[in-house]
Write a structure and sequence with these properties.
Blueprint: H1 2-20, E1 46-51, E2 56-60, E3 63-65, E4 70-71, E5 74-79, E6 83-88, E7 91-96
Antiparallel strand pairs: 1-2, 2-3, 4-5, 5-6, 6-7
């Protein structure tokens, strides 16, 4: 009887380790785990802004977002022609479509 209990206990422990290594087959291929702590701004890439009378959309890290949507715990507060303002645990963040260093003073 004791051998049966020990064998069942070993099978239970082994099966728990097997399940821990399984991956969710329904998770999207490029899923990113939610980040805790302060956000690394360099990981946010603003690649597109659309400002029109009908809608305002930005694309950050290949994800289309509108005002009120969130990415990495940061909420989209405002969308402008060349920038987007985010707020959240990292404070107020403004991402620019083009780096300000690209602009040159007029001659």
């Amino acid at each position: 009887m004791n051998k049966l209990i020990i064998i069942n206990l070993l099978l239970f422990v082994f099966s728990q380790n097997v399940y821990a290594e399984l991956h969710d087959p329904t998770r999207p291929a490029e899923y990113i785990e939610a980040q805790t702590g302060p956000l690394d701004i360099s990981k946010l890439d603003l690649s597109f802004t659309l400002v029109s009378a009908d809608r305002n959309v930005v694309v950050i890290n290949d994800i289309p977002l509108k005002v009120g949507d969130s990415i990495s715990g940061e909420r989209v507060e405002a969308i402008e022609l060349n920038s987007v303002r985010l707020t959240g645990p990292s404070g107020n963040i403004t991402l620019f479509l083009l780096d300000k260093s690209v602009k040159k003073p007029a001659q």
